[in-house]
Design brief:
The complex is a heterodimer of chains A (about 525) and B (about 110). Helices cover about 35% and strands about 25% of the residues of chain A. By secondary structure, chain A is of the alpha+beta class. The longest helix of chain A is centred in the N-terminal third of the chain and has 51 residues, at about 95-145. By secondary structure, chain B is of the alpha/beta class. In chain B, strands 1-2-3-4-5 form a five-stranded mixed β-sheet. In chain B, α1 (about 30-40) runs parallel beside α2. The termini of chain B are far apart. Classes of the chains: A alpha+beta (about 525), B alpha/beta (about 110).
């Protein structure tokens, strides 16, 4: 005799295996959902003699082959929950009417009991599954909270605030502030598709990858492109990461940025709200992606708001989305900082309504420029204070990077027009000398560039490892001699530097050689 | 930080030749510039058009000096046009302007007999 419980649904399959009888009694013969025997047994609802049934049923054939003579359906509340399969009687007599009545009675008693047992097991399994999901959410939430910044960066002249609230299912939101060498700061906000532990793990990987790439390049497009290359092979195929990455120069308010398909940040300016646009595909989808690089400058009093899509994709009771226009409206109306974050959260609560659940993680970062580098520099008085410093490797192209970066800082300090162009040329030449002559092009030796300022002047110092050796007196270039072939066509560098800046000084010790360039901050 | 790669294209304009310069002028511009000069007509003035040049450094000045020396040896006047105010100043400081006349733009440089 074998009792076969029918699996009600696929997920009960394990249950069924658990109650299969020992094999010496008989084999359980499953009846598939589409087998006509199923409907037949339900219809009859009483013991059925196999020999008398004429059905084109694979299950029936199987039972016949296994020597089943009588099938007693176990029906509870109109559902076939199993069958009692009996072989030949030991006496070889056919089953009598009494036998069948007895079996039918037994079946009617047993069926509800089995059903109850099934339900209890099912509930236990569901409780276990719920516990497993809760545990998974706790893990995901822990991963995420461990990786989000513990404290906000403190930058003179800037007010930075951040807010993060995970949804119950824990999305994969990420934000990060990456300190870069020269006082600049990398800004990250991103969102991993998917939720729970997989999203949290991808978020962790993305964060680490971006941190690594951010220290290798100051070009945000390159940072995202490199991050994408390294993420594509490790992110599961159906997942990707949208991500905004910007490099903020606190001295000047400049943000150079690129965007891998993330929501656009908004800048609140006196002229209205501006979207920080740049195109690029999300990270982790496919290799070989390029990311457009764009630039914005925050003036004193201006704020940028970075968000995840948990805000604009929130729904109200009737299913409408919060949307970008509502968000832009709030950015336009309220100054940045904690106030803006609180207002947005209040409006979101109102919008979702009393019973509305937070569907996705909500992340916001606001960066407000409170005062300009010019003002901070004036505060230095007559003692030049360092505005920024950075190091570059001694390789071709570094002189250009030095030039661009110093220009950006000097522009923030109010230098402009022809005088800014002159400083650029001087810095480029001085940095090239430092790389090629001071460090003899050794890529392992860095040049160090620092920008200092007081109320009257800007100083740029470029230090190389060319100390401890005498520097030959520069030959004053003579164009006639050069054109006549009596002097090399080269040798213009130092000459140009001297002509470009208001003052130039050099100093040497046994290790380093430093050139100092001075530009007055007076207007022409 | 890579700059804008240098390229030079030669246009023969009647009696004169215009070489359109593009990108950064540094030591890497030397070969391209010489090739462009070689493609110029055998006689008449050569006009260097700097309109699409944003960056010239001292090694680029050396490249221009070398070209100027060659043009002088060939007995051909070298002219410049399209320079920004900043590089016009540098051409004056280095006295390049004493040996190659600087014009505001190409029509002005071509209009000279």
């Amino acid at each position: 005799m074998a009792i076969l419980q029918r699996a009600r649904r696929k997920e009960e399959a394990t249950d069924r295996e658990a109650v299969q009888p020992p094999s010496q009694i008989g084999q359980a013969i499953p009846i598939p959902d589409h087998d006509p025997l199923l409907g037949y047994l339900l219809g009859v609802g009483a013991p059925v003699e196999v020999e008398k049934v004429a059905l084109d049923s694979p299950a029936l054939n199987e039972m016949r082959a296994a020597g089943v003579h009588l099938i007693v359906p176990l029906v509870s509340q109109g559902e076939l929950i199993g069958t009692l399969n009996l072989g030949r009687r030991l006496s070889d007599q056919p089953y009598s009417t009494d036998d069948r009545k007895l079996l039918a009675g037994l079946a009617s008693q047993v069926a509800p009991a089995i059903r109850v047992a099934q339900l209890v097991r099912q509930q236990e399994a569901e409780a276990k599954e719920r516990e497993r999901i809760e545990q998974e959410l706790r893990v995901a939430s822990l991963i995420q909270q461990t990786l989000l910044p513990k404290e906000l960066p403190h930058l003179a002249g800037w007010e930075i605030e951040a807010y993060y609230q995970s949804a119950r299912a824990v999305g994969g939101d990420i934000y990060d502030f990456i300190p870069l060498q020269d006082g600049r700061m990398g800004l990250v906000i991103g969102d991993v598709t998917d939720k729970g532990v997989p999203a949290a793990l991808v978020m962790a990987t993305t964060r680490t990858t971006l941190r690594t790439m951010a220290t290798q390049s100051y070009d945000p497009g390159e940072v995202l492109a490199r991050a994408n290359e390294s993420l594509v092979p490790v992110i599961p195929p159906a997942m990707f990461v949208t991500c905004f990455y910007g490099v903020l120069n606190p001295a000047t308010g400049d943000i150079v940025y690129a965007n891998a398909g993330h929501n656009l940040p908004y800048v609140r300016t006196s002229a209205g709200v501006i979207e920080m646009r740049a195109t690029g595909m999300p990270l982790g989808l496919m290799t070989g992606m390029n990311y457009e690089v764009a630039h914005a400058r925050l003036n004193p009093g201006e704020t940028v708001l970075l968000t995840s899509d948990g805000i604009v994709e929130s729904h109200d009771q009737s299913g409408d989305m919060f949307g970008f226009p509502r968000l832009i409206d709030l950015v336009a109306k309220y100054e940045g900082g904690q106030d803006l974050i609180s207002i947005i959260l209040d409006r979101l609560d109102d919008f979702r309504g009393k019973d509305g659940e937070q569907e996705d993680d909500v992340t916001m970062v606001t960066i407000k420029r409170t005062s300009s580098a010019l003002e901070s520099a004036v505060a230095f008085g007559d003692d030049p204070g360092e505005v920024a410093s950075f190091a570059l490797v001694s390789s071709p192209g570094s002189e250009r990077e030095a030039m661009v970066r110093v220009a950006s800082i000097a522009a923030g300090l109010g230098l402009k027009g022809e005088r800014l162009e002159r400083l650029k040329t001087a810095v480029s030449e001085a940095a090239m000398n430092a790389c090629e002559h001071g460090n003899k092009g050794d890529p392992d030796l860095p040049i160090e560039v620092s920008v200092l300022a007081d109320s009257k002047k800007i100083l740029v110092r470029i230090k190389d490892h060319g100390g401890g050796r005498s520097i030959p007196d520069p030959v004053i270039p003579n164009l006639e001699a050069k054109l006549a072939g009596e002097q090399s066509p080269r040798g213009w560098g130092l000459f140009l530097i001297e002509k470009m800046v208001d003052a130039m000084r050099t100093s040497t010790d046994d290790q380093y050689h430093t050139i100092e360039l001075e530009m007055s901050r007076r207007e022409d | 930080m890579p700059g804008t790669p240098f390229s030079a294209e030669t246009r023969n304009m009647g009696d004169s030749t215009v070489i359109d310069l593009k990108g950064d002028i540094d030591r890497n511009a030397k070969d391209e510039l010489e090739i462009a000069y070689n493609q110029a007509a055998t006689q008449g003035p050569v006009i260097l058009n700097f309109t699409d040049v944003d960056y010239i450094n001292s090694t680029g000045i050396a490249v221009i000096v070398a070209l100027l020396a060659r043009a002088r040896a060939d007995g051909r006047p070298l002219r410049a046009c399209g320079l920004s105010a900043h590089y016009r100043e540098i051409f004056q400081i280095t006295r390049l302007a004493d040996f190659m006349t600087i014009y505001d733009d190409e029509p002005a440089a071509l209009a000279v007999e």
